[in-house]
Every structure is written in structure tokens, then in C-alpha cells.
Design goal:
- With 113 residues, the protein is α/β, with parallel strands linked by helices.
- Helices cover 43% and strands 20% of the residues.
- The protein has a 5-stranded parallel sheet, sandwiched between helices.
- Helix 1 links the parallel strand 1 and strand 2.
- Helix 2 packs parallel to helix 3.
- 27% of the residues are buried.
């Protein structure tokens, strides 16, 4: 059975790059382009992995993550964001992210994580 992966990313080019690449790797991928849509997808389906941007319209990724962790403590979440300061990485991990990857990123590293 393929791994179900939700990508919550508002940058259309990045979302397309990630989703195409992950599908080629054999993942089943759905994309949400803003925070509230992502939150709805998180609540209404089961995911094996979530790739989450921090800066999102509607609701930021940090808030989405915090809300998600209140109802789901097990699904791995990887922050994929341009917020690269050490303090921001710590904040994201402390909010419940399992991993943190800064943009720009290597696709190979994303898949490895």
C-alpha cells in the first residue's frame, strides 16, 4: 500500500514540484494551498506523513500544526519553510513538528527525511 502524503503549500510551483516528484517516488499525494484547506484535509482524512509550510494564507502553518497536535499525536509532520532562523526551527519543533527542512531544499533530502 502506498504512503498517503498531504502537502500544505501555497506556492504553486513548489507544491507542483514536490507533488510530482513524490508521486514519481510512489507516494499518494494531495495538495492543499492554504492553511484552512489543509486543516480541513487533516481532519477529514488519514495521512501517513504531512509536509507543511509555515507561511500560508488563511491560517499559518504553525497554528495548523498546533491544532493538529491537539487531536493527533502520531502522524509525522515535516515543516518545509523559508523560516530558517534557529529560533524558528526550535519553535516549529517545540510546536510538534517531527522534522524541519529549510527552503531552498534538495528534493533528495526531502525524500530521505
Amino acid at each position: 500500500m502506498a504512503i498517503r502524503l498531504l502537502v500544505i503549500e501555497d506556492d504553486e510551483e513548489i507544491a507542483d514540484f514536490i507533488s510530482r516528484g513524490l508521486r514519481e517516488e510512489g507516494f499518494l499525494v494531495e495538495v492543499a494551498a492554504e492553511g484552512l484547506t489543509g486543516w480541513h484535509a487533516l481532519r477529514t482524512a488519514s495521512w501517513d506523513v504531512v509536509v507543511l509550510d509555515w507561511w500560508l494564507p488563511g491560517q499559518d502553518g504553525l497554528t495548523v500544526l498546533q491544532r493538529f497536535r491537539q487531536v493527533n499525536q502520531t502522524t509525522p509532520v515535516l515543516f518545509l519553510t523559508a523560516r530558517d532562523a534557529v529560533e524558528q526551527r526550535i519553535q516549529g519543533l517545540n510546536a510538534g513538528a517531527d522534522d524541519y527542512l529549510c527552503k531552498p531544499f534538495s528534493f533528495a533530502e526531502l525524500v530521505a527525511r
